[in-house]
Structure formats: structure tokens, C-alpha cells
């Protein structure tokens, strides 16, 4: 054994690779693919050697642009910002680039779930195998269960103590109403159907197939299964014997290595990659205790039917999976470069997740993910077309390294940074032959909005930002620009998360707005939410909406670039305290789980004890908003610390039932989580683009070292 192996690392073509990670890549990833490990590592090292300096230079450019913007605002502080002058300045420094000439994307070999279907999308943390399997299996979901167990239905909740027949009757009635609206019968109601033969549909084309005990219908490209079972407790009391209505729900799922996970070292990355491999091989399983029994969850098989034409019909049993890599900013100690520095994590992710996905496109797994033979990678937090172009070049190199055809690796571009929003057409142009996804996301985009204009003045209150003019322009421009460049029929245009998984009634009232904008997918927080949100895509023919929106005028840049400054506002002491408390509670509630337990996404109670599905974007906006008010004297350091300490006590109380929880209150120096939250606020102005990752990673590594899991880095 050499010294490298003794230190837990193995040398591979000049790279110092964590030994367990190297063994995993060599044996479990490359071996079944027939790729020689020596050739792979030699090519990987060359790729890293070429792209790392470029990556670093792009980050330097981010900092230099921000410094110029900071200086510009400081020189004009207190003066009105004239749109034409501001736009000219941003063009002069290269923040804004010229609009590209007309073009259409040329992406090919795209699965229909992305290209020609409209429906819900899930995002799931890759480190949690059970959650990952639940999300992958959320392609189909019981509408009866979704209604019975949530507040989505306008009826009294189920009484405890077993099956509530009154609640069940309300669910069945709602199911009939849904069928009458979506699949109307000829001169009858579904309440009158006796369950015999094929239902007499007004539109015969909606009948898609049959199987024993089931009828398959289709509307707006989405399938609905009517389960017929007179032996079932629900079907036994039903005139037609309908035991359930099963919705085709989460068409796609993003398996996340980024904002919803706390992955800071080789141990974490190995688990992430291993779970992704299990999905691509189709053999990932998770065992858990429920009701005193051990249950095992695995991936669902495809669904077999006989089509309306009497031919075999196979429908996917699982959501089509993307994988979200990390952005360009962070590095990871899982692999050290020849100079001893950490590898850019986004470069490592691109190579390893693509190699793992080859198990799918080579047909080595139990199930197929991409029937079109593509690998789908969502790339977050890119700033402008130059960085998107870097990703395109990187993916070219990954394809060459792995022997893949050009543009096998597809890309989803997250429109969540201001420089990308302002140059979206040029960003799409940079990946025009591999793009399959764009979306909008309020939290990260708002965090960048605040940080970019940090020196301009104090921002309006966080809740008010949602109603500010730039948000409306941002959401509209994203769809219009995507449609103008040919994404309809080839790619997804997505909208952001509904964060409250226990508030399904409100979601059903509000989230229909997303398909009405022309977005053919939108994020939901759970498989149950996906089942319910699928109803919106039956009510709205999204591709018809896209044709209408394509004729509308795209909002101009001035609206997008309008900074949400609180000019002339004089808040009361109570209003300041209220805003600080809201931000501090949300910040601490998330950070304490991230640092102490390594949980990157969970249902976190807000200041009003409403559970919200939170990921890292939450603390970016909260910490940046507090840092902004601190910088401009809206709040003092003492006021901020007072809020942090009082809210630490509140968060402790909210987590009192968690046996793994470590309290923060009164342990101001001992609690790494509390100290991390303080750093995020008091050092928020200095954080690169307002990102939280550098501080979170540093404090999580200290926490892991303190409990003896890893050696603390120098």
C-alpha cells in the first residue's frame, strides 16, 4: 500500500482521488461499461487541467463585474437611477451583451415527457434514497388518496379511527365531477355509468386502452386510469365498481446534487453518485419501518395495456429523470488537483453523472430512463452566456471522453441569476443544440437581485418583492424568449416551487396560473402534490396557450432591471423587528438542519409554524436581505443579533420533538449552526454573488470534524 492509499487517496493520472470514490468509479461505473480505467483517468485529468483555469477565470469575471456595479451604485447613492443610463453602463462593462440574431434551437432525440407533454415536475435530494424512489415512482398517483388525505377537497376532513365513509363519499363525488369535466360522456354523467364495457365518451379519441380491472383514458396528452374492482372496499359501494382514479402525474423529476443536499466531501459525493447509479441501473432500493413492519421500496415497472386499436401498449411506470449538477462556484475535496487544490465540483459532477447515466443509454439497467438515448443534466447558477457556453464546451469534452455522440448530454438552463435573465436569448443560443429546459425560480433570483444591487440602497421588504415589477417581467420574458427560439415541442419551460406541502387547497387555487402562462411544467413539493397539480394540465391545454403567448410582446429590459429599492420608506421599529424576525427564523430553521444533521431539504416550520419545503435558496434571500438592511442602517447589528437569538429559541421549540436536534439558544459559541447563520448575515455582503455555499460547507466540515467523522480541513 502506498502513502496515498494510507491517507485515504489514490493517485490517478496526477489527481489525488478519494480511495473509496476511485474504487467506486473504476469498479461500479466504468467496469460494466467496458471503459478502461487508466484511459478514463488520463482523459479526465486532461479535461480537468483544461477546464479548471477557465472555470476560475469566469469566477474572477463575476467578481470584477460585481465590483464595478458596486462602485457605480456607491457613487450615485441617494440619486435616482435612470433606466437608459443604467442599461448603458451595464452594456459598457459587458454585463449586458447584444441580442443575438434570430435563431431556433436544434435539439434532437428528446423524450416526449420533455418535448411534447405538459405536467408536474418534482425535485428530490439525491442523498435520500427513499425520497428519490418516491419521486421516481410518482409518475402515477392515486387521486382518491390525494384528496382523502389532504385539504385539497372542499369537505370536512377525515375523522380519525379508520376509514371515514363520509369523507370517502365526498372523494368519490369529486372524482365523478373531475371525470364529467375532463372526459364527458355522451348524454350521461359518470355517476350514471354502470361500469360495463367502454364508457360512452363524447370524444371517442379519449379512450386509450384497457386491461383487466382498468380503463385508460387520455386528455391533453396525459393518461388517467380508472381502476375497476368490486371487491375493493371503495369499489364495492360504487355503482360502476370504480375503486380509484389514478393520474399520470410527475412526468419528470430532477434528482438533485445541488441546493437540496448537504454534500461537502467525498463521503457525501459517493453516496450521491451511488444513488444516481442505482436509479440508472434500476436496482436502487430503500427499506424502512412502518407500522412495526419492514417495508422495501423499489422502482416501479412499466404499465402494460391493450390499446384502443387492440395492440400492446406500454406506458412508463416512472418519472423521466434529470440530474442537477452543482454550478461553477464550488470545489470539493473528493479529488485534489496536481497542485493540491480541490477539483471544481461542477466539472466532477459533469463527468461522473454522465458516465453513470451511460448505464441507462447502454441498456444495462432493469428499466429505461431515456428511451431517446439522452442524458439530461440541469445546470444551475450560471451567470450569462459566457458561462453557459463554458458548460456547452465542458459537455462536448465529457462526450468525447466517454465516447458519446455529440449532444447526447442535454442541458437544462436555470434562469435564476440576474445576468442570465437579462441575456436569456444569448444564453439559449450558447447551448442551442442541447437545451431541453429553462425555468424561473423566485428565491435564488431574488437573492441575486439583492446582491447585485446591494450598494444601491435598502431593498423593500421581502414579502413585497414578490409583487415588484421586475418579477412580472422576469416570469413573462422567460416564457416569451423560450417560445421565440423554438423551445415549444422540443424543451420544457418551467416555473418554480409551491413550497407548502400541507396547503394543497391553496395550491389548487393558485398553481393553475403556471400552465396558463404557457409553462409546460412546474415544481411541486411531493408526489401527492404532483397528482393534484396534474389536474391543472387537464384543464389547460398548455401547447395551445404557448401558440397564443408566442404572439405577445416580450417585456423590455428596463422592467427587468428595475431595482426593488425602498426609496423614501421610513419603517417603524416594529416593522423592522418583524422583518428581521421573519428572515432570522427562516434562516436558522434551515441552517440548523444543514449544519448539524446534513439535511439539505426538509419541511421547515416558518415563523407562523406553517411547514415549508425549503432548500438552500431560502437562506440566500433571507441572509442577503438582512445583510442589505444592515449595510444601509435600516437595522443595527444589535437589532439583528437580538432577532437571531430570539428566533434561535423559537426554532429550538419548533424542533423539540426531534431526538437528533441540537439546541442553539444559550449555546451561542458552541452551536456551529448558530455561528454559521451569523456569518451568513454579518459577512453576507462579502459572499460571492450572495451565495451561501462557501460558509455552509466550511461550517458543515467543522461539524463533521467535531463529531469525528472527518478530519477538519486546514
Highest-level CATH class of the domain at 573-706: Mainly Alpha
Whole-number mean pLDDT: 96
CATH superfamily of the domain at 573-706: Malate synthase, domain III
Helix content: 40-55%
- Overall morphology: globular
Query: In angstroms, what separates the terminal alpha carbons?
Result: 25 Å
CATH topology of the domain at 573-706: Malate Synthase G, Chain: A, Domain 4
The major beta sheet can be summarized as: 8 strands, parallel, barrel
Would you identify the regions where 5 or more consecutive residues have pLDDT less than 50?
A: 710-714
Measured on Cα atoms, how large is the radius of gyration? 26 Å
Range of strand content: 15-25%
Give the tally of β-strands. 23
Query: How is the largest sheet built, in terms of strand order?
Result: 3-9-14-17-18-19-20-21
How would you characterize this protein structure?
By secondary structure, the chain is of the alpha/beta class. It has 27 helices and 23 strands. Among the domains are: about 140-250, Malate synthase G - maily-beta sub-domain (Beta Complex); about 575-705, Malate Synthase G, Chain: A, Domain 4 (Up-down Bundle). Strands 3-9-14-17-18-19-20-21 form an 8-stranded parallel beta barrel, surrounded by 6 helices. It has a 7-stranded antiparallel sheet with strand order 4-8-7-6-5-12-13. Helix 2 packs parallel to helix 11, helix 10 (about 265-280) packs parallel to helix 11 and helix 25 (about 635-655) runs antiparallel to helix 26 (about 670-680). The longest helix has about 40 residues, at about 35-75. It is globular.
Amino acid at each position: 500500500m502506498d502513502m496515498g492509499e494510507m491517507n485515504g487517496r489514490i493517485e490517478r493520472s496526477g489527481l489525488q482521488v478519494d480511495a473509496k470514490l476511485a474504487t467506486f468509479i473504476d469498479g461500479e461505473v466504468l467496469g460494466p461499461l467496458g471503459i478502461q480505467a487508466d484511459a478514463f483517468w488520463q482523459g479526465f485529468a486532461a479535461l480537468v487541467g483544461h477546464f479548471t483555469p477557465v472555470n476560475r477565470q469566469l469566477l474572477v469575471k463575476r467578481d470584477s463585474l460585481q465590483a464595478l456595479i458596486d462602485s457605480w451604485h456607491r457613487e450615485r447613492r441617494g440619486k435616482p437611477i435612470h433606466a437608459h443610463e443604467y442599461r448603458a453602463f451595464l452594456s459598457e462593462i459587458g454585463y449586458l451583451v447584444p441580442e443575438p440574431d434570430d435563431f431556433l434551437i436544434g435539439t434532437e432525440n428528446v423524450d416526449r415527457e420533455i418535448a411534447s407533454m405538459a405536467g408536474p415536475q418534482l425535485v428530490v435530494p439525491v442523498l435520500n434514497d427513499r425520497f428519490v424512489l418516491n419521486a421516481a415512482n410518482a409518475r402515477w398517483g392515486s387521486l382518491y388518496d390525494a384528496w382523502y388525505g389532504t385539504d385539497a377537497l372542499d369537505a370536512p376532513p377525515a375523522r380519525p379511527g379508520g376509514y371515514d365513509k363520509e369523507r370517502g363519499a365526498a372523494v368519490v363525488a369529486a372524482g365523478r365531477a373531475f371525470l364529467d369535466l375532463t372526459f364527458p360522456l355522451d348524454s350521461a354523467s359518470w355517476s350514471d355509468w354502470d361500469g360495463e364495457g367502454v364508457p360512452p365518451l363524447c370524444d371517442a379519441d379519449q379512450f386509450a386502452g384497457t386491461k383487466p380491472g382498468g380503463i385508460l383514458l387520455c386528455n391533453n396528452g396525459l393518461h388517467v386510469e380508472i381502476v375497476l374492482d368490486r371487491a375493493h372496499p371503495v369499489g364495492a359501494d360504487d355503482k360502476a365498481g370504480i375503486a380509484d382514479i389514478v393520474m399520470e402525474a410527475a412526468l419528470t423529476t430532477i434528482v438533485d446534487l445541488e441546493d437540496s443536499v448537504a454534500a461537502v466531501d467525498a463521503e457525501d459525493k459517493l453516496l450521491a453518485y451511488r444513488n444516481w447509479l442505482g436509479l440508472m441501473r434500476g436496482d436502487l432500493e430503500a427499506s424502512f419501518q412502518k407500522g412495526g413492519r419492514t417495508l422495501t421500496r423499489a422502482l416501479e415497472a412499466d404499465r402494460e395495456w391493450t390499446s384502443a386499436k387492440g395492440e400492446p401498449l406500454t406506458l412508463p411506470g416512472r418519472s423521466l429523470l434529470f440530474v442537477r449538477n452543482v454550478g461553477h462556484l464550488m470545489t470539493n475535496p473528493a479529488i485534489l488537483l496536481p497542485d493540491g487544490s480541490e477539483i471544481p465540483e461542477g466539472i466532477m459532477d459533469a463527468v461522473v453523472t454522465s458516465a453513470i447515466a451511460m448505464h441507462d443509454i447502454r441498456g444495462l439497467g432493469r428499466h429505461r430512463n431515456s428511451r431517446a438515448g439522452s442524458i439530461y443534466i440541469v445546470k444551475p447558477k450560471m451567470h450569462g452566456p459566457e458561462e453557459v457556453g463554458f458548460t456547452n464546451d465542458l459537455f462536448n469534452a465529457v462526450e468525447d471522453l466517454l465516447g458519446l455522440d455529440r449532444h447526447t448530454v442535454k442541458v437544462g438552463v436555470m434562469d435564476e441569476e440576474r445576468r442570465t435573465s437579462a441575456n436569456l436569448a444569448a444564453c439559449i443560443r450558447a447551448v442551442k443544440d442541447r437545451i431541453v429546459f429553462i425555468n424561473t425560480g423566485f428565491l435564488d433570483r431574488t437573492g441575486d437581485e439583492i446582491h447585485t444591487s446591494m450598494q444601491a440602497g435598502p431593498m423593500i421588504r421581502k414579502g413585497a418583492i414578490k409583487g415588484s415589477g421586475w418579477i412580472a417581467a422576469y416570469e413573462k420574458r422567460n416564457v416569451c424568449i423560450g417560445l421565440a427560439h423554438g423551445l415549444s415541442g422540443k424543451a420544457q419551460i418551467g416555473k418554480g416551487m409551491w413550497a407548502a406541502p400541507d396547503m394543497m387547497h391553496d395550491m389548487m387555487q393558485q398553481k393553475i396560473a403556471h400552465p396558463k402562462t404557457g409553462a409546460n411544467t412546474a415544481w411541486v413539493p411531493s408526489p401527492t402534490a404532483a397528482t393534484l397539480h396534474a389536474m391543472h394540465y387537464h384543464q389547460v391545454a398548455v401547447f395551445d396557450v404557448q401558440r397564443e403567448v408566442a404572439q405577445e410582446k416580450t417585456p423590455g429590459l428596463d422592467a427587468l432591471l428595475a431595482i426593488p429599492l425602498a426609496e423614501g420608506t421610513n419603517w417603524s421599529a416594529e416593522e423592522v423587528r418583524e422583518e428581521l424576525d421573519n428572515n432570522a427564523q427562516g434562516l436558522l430553521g434551515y441552517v440548523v438542519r444543514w449544519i448539524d444533521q446534513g439535511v439539505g431539504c426538509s419541511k421547515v416550520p416558518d415563523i407562523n409554524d406553517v411547514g415549508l419545503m425549503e432548500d438552500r435558496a431560502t437562506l440566500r434571500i433571507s441572509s442577503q436581505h438582512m445583510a442589505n438592511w444592515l449595510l444601509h442602517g435600516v437595522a443595527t447589528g444589535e437589532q439583528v443579533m437580538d432577532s437571531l437569538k430570539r428566533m434561535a429559541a423559537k426554532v429550538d421549540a419548533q424542533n423539540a420533538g426531534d431526538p437528533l436536534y441540537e439546541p442553539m439558544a444559550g449555546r451561542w459559541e458552541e452551536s456551529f449552526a448558530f455561528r454559521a447563520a451569523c456569518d451568513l448575515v454579518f459577512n453576507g455582503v462579502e459572499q460571492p454573488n450572495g451565495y451561501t455555499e462557501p460558509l455552509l460547507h466550511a461550517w458543515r466540515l467543522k461539524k463533521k470534524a467535531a463529531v469525528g467523522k472527518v478530519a477538519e480541513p486546514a
